[in-house]
Amino acid sequence: MMPRLTTAALAVLVAAGFAAPAHSEALVAYTKDFTAFHSAFCDAPRDGEYFFVLPVNIFEEHKTFDCADGTYTLRTTPAADDPGHMLYNVDPPHAVANGFDCDAKADTGMQSVAINCIPADLEQEGHSKT
Questions:
Q1: How far is residue 124's CA from residue 130's CA, in Å, rounded to a whole number?
Q2: What is the pTM of this model?
Q3: CA-to-CA distance for 8 and 84, rounded, in angstroms?
């Protein structure tokens, strides 16, 4: 079972502008390694916004992983417009409308990153995957 925020804690995040549920109860999963992240990510319903906190080394050690809805791709790139920061992406399987598309930005040298995920069919049109 994934750790969930209490309603009160989620309310604080929403009020502070850090989270806003789209279609379902927002979920935050804190994962300590690839196995925990893989399980939490693949088990999460694809019906709204989710947040996963995971070690940065997962992006370094794994380039892809499989869930029931297909193969996801992990990417990191330096933020061209913000030196000293990295962009972290989890790209959904091709042609899977509700596959999670995840993004994050963090300082270079961070040990953990919080990625925000939304089903690809709910994100803004024209969002680049490269």
A1: 15
A2: 0.76
A3: 34
